[in-house]
Each structure stands twice: as C-alpha cells, then as structure tokens.
Amino acid sequence: MSRKEDTKTQGFSLKPAMKEEGPPSTKAFEPLPPKVSAFHRMCGRGDLPVQMDYNSRSYRIHWKVALDKLDYTYYLPLFFDGLTETEHPFNFFASQGIHEMLEKGGPRILPVIPQLIIPIKKALNTRNHVVTCSTLRVLKRLVVSGEKVGEALVPYFRQILPIFRMFQQKSSTGDVVSGQRGEVIRELIRETLELFEHHGGIGAFLEIKYVLPTYE
C-alpha cells in the first residue's frame, strides 16, 4: 500500500490545519503614512483662491474671490481633500476655508454632499488623531450648515461611521487625547453622533445603531 493510501485509511489529512483568527492587530490603530493631497499641490502652486492675511494679528485667510461667487461644486470638495493635511499652512487653509465656506454656503452646500464623502472617509481613515479631531469638528459644522444637509448625510453613515467604532474601541481602555486643544476623540464622536441623529431625520438613529450598536 502506498504512503498516500495509508494516510487516507488512517483518516489523516495532508492539508495544513487552519489557524484560528486572533484579535485585531494593533497595527489597525496606527496612523497611516500621509499622502500629498490634491489640495496640497494646488495650494503649493498658488492655484487656490485664498492667501494668508498678514495684516491681521491672528491667523486669517483672505479670499481672492468673494464667497458668494465661488464655485462650491469644485472648491468645497477640494478643501475637504485638505483635511488630511497636518502641516502649516496647508492644514490651516483647509480647516479655516471649510469653516468659512460652510458659514456662507447656504443652499449651495446640499448638492455637493455626495462629493464630500470620499475626502471625509480618506481623512478619517488616516487614523491620525489630529486629523480625526479636525474632521469631526468639520462634520459637526457640516451637519448644521444648511437645511436638509443632515438628512442628506444619512445614506452615507455606513461609509463614514465604521472608523468611529474603531476609535471607540481604542478609547474603551483610556481616553484618546489629541492636539494642543486636549480634545478627547470619544467626546467629539459622541457630540457628532448626537448632531447626526438630531438633524438626520427619522431614519438617522437606526442607521447609526446599525454601525454602532452601543449607541444610545
């Protein structure tokens, strides 16, 4: 009898045993290496309609084009792309530019929501604490920036919220604090989710619970 046949008669398998899956690797929580954004490249070339206002005592930006004449369909997603930036002045231009555009955008914001999802996901998926805090602050402003904006975000919760769950799991053993503001990511997540639920309409709570079962 051949060796192969002998192993079969004894009930042996020549296939390697399957390894049991262990807990998620800690590398899943490590910040990803930064990539140069389209926003960074355009800002470096001076192709954006903003510049630093050096006549002010504090950091401010000066718009070369009036905000009521700015093409939000093009520039709002581009500035959101800059949320991944961590170096000055690129991160300042991006966050301050978004803040001022959301403040003055009114009805021009709602049609652009689908184009903002990819840069939001990209920023959150960096797992960088400073970038995450900045993005959460932007989301808090975005959801209250115009009528129906909160409801327009609900279909994208399943794309945006998984990274929230990851940070909640990480902070379950201790608060994750970020930046000079001393912000606790867990608290920013809680505040953002509450705004999502409040402004998202009837289905918002269930969509949040689908991704984050512990949300109350």
Q: How can the largest sheet be summarized? A: 2 strands, antiparallel
Radius of gyration: 23 Å
Number of strand segments: 4
Q: Which strand-content bin applies to the residues?
A: under 5%
Strand line-up of the largest beta sheet: 1-2
Low-confidence stretches: 7-23
- The outline comes out as globular
Question: What would you note in describing this structure?
Answer:
There is one protein chain. With 216 residues, this protein is mostly helical. The chain has helices at residues 3-9, 38-45, 72-81, 90-105, 113-124, 129-143, 149-153, 157-160, 162-171, 185-199, 204-211; strands at residues 50-52, 61-63, 177-178, 183-184. It is built from eleven helices and four strands; from the N terminus they run ααββαααααααββαα. Helix 6 packs parallel to helix 10 (185-199). The protein is globular, with a radius of gyration of 23 Å. The protein starts with a helix and ends in a 5-residue tail after the last helix. Residues 7-23 have low confidence and may be disordered.
Summarize it.
It contains 11 helices and 4 strands; from the N terminus they run H-H-E-E-H-H-H-H-H-H-H-E-E-H-H. The protein has 216 residues and is mostly helical. The longest helix is centred in the middle third of the chain and has 16 residues, at 90-105.
